[in-house]
Specification:
By secondary structure, this protein is an alpha+beta fold. The chain has helices at residues 20-28, 38-49, 79-86, 89-101, 109-117, 122-127, 165-180; strands at residues 5-8, 15-18, 53-57, 64-68, 133-139, 142-148, 153-158, 184-189. It has three domains: 5-49, no CATH class; 53-101; 109-201, Endonuclease, Chain A (3-Layer(aba) Sandwich). It is built from seven helices and eight strands. The strands form three sheets. The protein has a four-stranded mixed β-sheet. Strands 1-2 form a two-stranded antiparallel ribbon. It is elongated, with a radius of gyration of 37 Å. The N and C termini lie far apart (111 Å).
Length: 204
Amino acid sequence: MEKPVRLICANCGKAFDKSAKEYRRRTREGHTKFFCSISCGTISSNKARQAKIIEKVCPVCGATFTARDVSTAATFCSHSCANKGSATPKRRKAQSLAGKQHIDNLLSASAVLKRREWWKYAKIDKALEWRIHEFEYPLGGYVFDLALLDVNVLVEFDGPDHKLIYQKKIDREKESVARSLGFSVVRRDVKPMAIIPISAIKGL
């Protein structure tokens, strides 16, 4: 019986034995690489099919970056450059036109606040049903918590943050704008993140 041939796996470098007969047959067929297992043979054959790593130059910033040599390879070095590079004048114009066609779908700051903050006003809304009023009322570039439109009074429900210096400055500016437009401003302290009680509108 022929002694097996000791070979080195071309993939993992592990030594293994192959029968002399099989070794001669594979050699006659032109094979020069031998593998210790089907797994190593598969890995080696897949390596030949893998895309090569190449260097590319970003068309936006000029930076050099690496990418795979495939049809789907990245064109830009980053998402930021991709956004800049893909936003052609033609595409920007199309986006602008599409936005103008649907501008009515955009909500104002006041409308957004009404949807988000409505839960706070549930109790006082019922108590004010006989008054002409509006919550999150837009006026002069600001939004006021409550407007009593039958008496031109704006009500601001203040939490603890309104005692901060920077917030006091904003509040003074809002009041100044309101007075210039013929409204008076009333401030009521309330608990943050809580339903506004009916007592907060007492005397208005």
